[in-house]
Amino acid sequence: MSQNSENVEKDINSSTSNKLLVICVDRDNDIGEKAGVITPVIGRNACIDAAQRLALKDPEDADSNSMFSAIKTYDDLMNKGYQVEVVIVAGIKERGIQADEKILNEIKKILEVFSANGAVIVSDGEDDESVIPVIQNVLPIVSVHRVVMKVSRSVEYSYAVFGKYLKMLAYDSKYSKFFLGLPGILLLIGGIATIFGYTAEIFAVLVSILGAAFLIRAFDIDRAWANITKPTPVGFIRIFTMIAGILLILSSVPAGINSVDIKLIEKNIDVFTMFSDKIIIGQYVTGSLPILWIGLGAIFAGMLLSNWIGGVPKQISDILRMVVLVALYPITSQFIIIMVNDSVNSITLLPPLLGGLAVTLIAAAILFKKFRKQKRQEMISE
After folding, report:
1. Which of 116, 195, 334, 374 lies 20 to 30 angstroms, CA to CA, from 3?
2. Are the beta carbons of 144 and 130 closer than 8 angstroms?
3. CB atoms within 10 A of CB 120
4. pLDDT digit string (tens) for 198-233?
């Protein structure tokens, strides 16, 4: 028996589980996308067939090695006299919450066929292992076995791997859009600007474009926008509320400007003096605050409604976001009054502050109590 198998057996012996489920996790669903295998796959022979089909479609995919490793772990435990079954579960290509939910549902289906009381997780990396907390909700995990490929350390192999990734950057649209497309656009713009003598001006533009691209990719803004604009009822709700909220937020700017006394603006011609005048700032914020808050509320309400319709379990955070927004309005409004009017005592900020805190805590307690009750009912029904 290998060292890894011995470690798995030690973990099992230290637990009280007697019916074990060896689970191979494929979170990005390579087995479905490449080999057309529908998961969950249950049983040794079915898992061998699935692993062979994936290996034939893509011999370089590490998931097939994880599947064979899961089968070997199953054989080792069977030879030791354990009551055990081997399965393959998969998420979806985009990973994320939907992938974890799919894996959880597949585990539940498997437990209806084989009522295990412990699990051995076999994976090829941290991405697949990120579903461990999800699986632990329905089945205790006894051991985790990560499959590490043994590869050549020769210079030739390093060049081959480097060439493979260069080819991936050049021909795989998922990577080439960013690593080739963005630099290509910047170089094209820079070249045209140099011809017409706008080198200095275009440098600032190129840096701004590059910085915006990095920010969009770093914070997954492009994926979030793609999810928002999907042609589904939930997507249309998100689009409407997002656009309406942004328009309301933008309209709060002229509303704030119109609320400022024109005589104060005429007295403070200097921009710096104008922005340092607390009366002008207070009047501006007072005029823009209601529309600004309504715009934010529209965006938050769209998130709540779309998650509720789509069945995404985020209602608690969405509702609390709305409650906090409402609770902060009196505090912000009173703060502006104190800033504008010197005769108003700062102690008047305390009642709305305590009231907002009380409302938030009460709402959080009610929502969490309801959530726990709902979870308890789901566990009983299962």
Report:
1. 116
2. no
3. 27
4. 777 777 777 777 777 777 666 666 666 666 556 566
